[in-house]
Amino acid sequence: METFYRGRRYRENPILRRALQETTIDRNKLIQPVFFTEAPGSTEVSSMPGMYRHSVESSLPYLERLLKKGINKIIAFGIPAEKDETGSAAFESDGIIQKALRETKKRFGNDLYLITDVCMCEYTSHGHCGIIRGNNVDNDATLPYLGKIALSHVDAGADMVAPSDMMDGRVGIIRNALDTNGYTGTPILAYSIKFASSFYGPFRDAAGSTPGFGDRKGYQLNPPNSRISLLEAYADMEEGADILMVKPALPYLDILKELRISTKLPLAAYQVSGEYSMIKAAVEKGWLEEKSAVRESLVSIFRAGADLVITYFAEDLDYDQ
Ligand code: PBG
Fold first, then answer.
1. pTM for the complete prediction?
2. Catalytic residue of the set 73, 83, 194, 280
């Protein structure tokens, strides 16, 4: 009698294989990013095939299709007509995102859960995520703006706010701005562990938010670091974040897993634009099969410990598996 391990007993029969599957993809855990623009109609993002920038009006039938497919959460990004030094279009009450929030709430009520990205880079003329002093983003001068932006989103109908700017102290400032205005029940999803990644390129194309000078390495995290990166998540937790996020997803699953082990808070991961475009490009070339590649990448993110995944693929999958 041979004595080696017979692991194939677990997977040869497809019924047993499925029954023993430890991780599944549930559409209730997916969040679709949506780009809202002041320009009319819908235009495809050239570096993100299948993703569009929508005017508020043309977003409504799109959002209706999303809901029909069972995707009931979006994260909204705004692309304003005008940008300035202080990103003022980010907090005006008739800014693009505020208009989009009011219209979508009016149309879909509580059937569609609205999360907003709180940041300045899509709104500033220099493309940085805060107020510039000299050659630097001034952390403390930026904080009150972030509080104001988050508050303007919730005033317009946001159900949750997600700060992505990577300034120190922003979660506490935003929590305070919401609480003192009666929004104690609005959760904060903090982009806590956000790396200075080359995988955001297609997003910056979509949002026109490439920095005009320098880079974001002074505020976004250094990719080789895991210990120092985890400290960001602990700080956000102390300041009152309700959900912590790791971004990008696939290249940083080790960090997601470590965070899963070291906190009880719900965790999110963002499968970013570059992760989307890489798969799309390989599919276009006939080098990968889309559905199975997407499923495998998503299931890996859930397996590492994500409770929620932001992904551009949310809208076009029949994933329950
Ligand atoms: C805004 C923001 C960015 C992304 C999400 N929020 C861009 C950046 O930090 O440059 C990237 C998302 C993606 O690549 O899909 N700060």
1. 0.96
2. 194
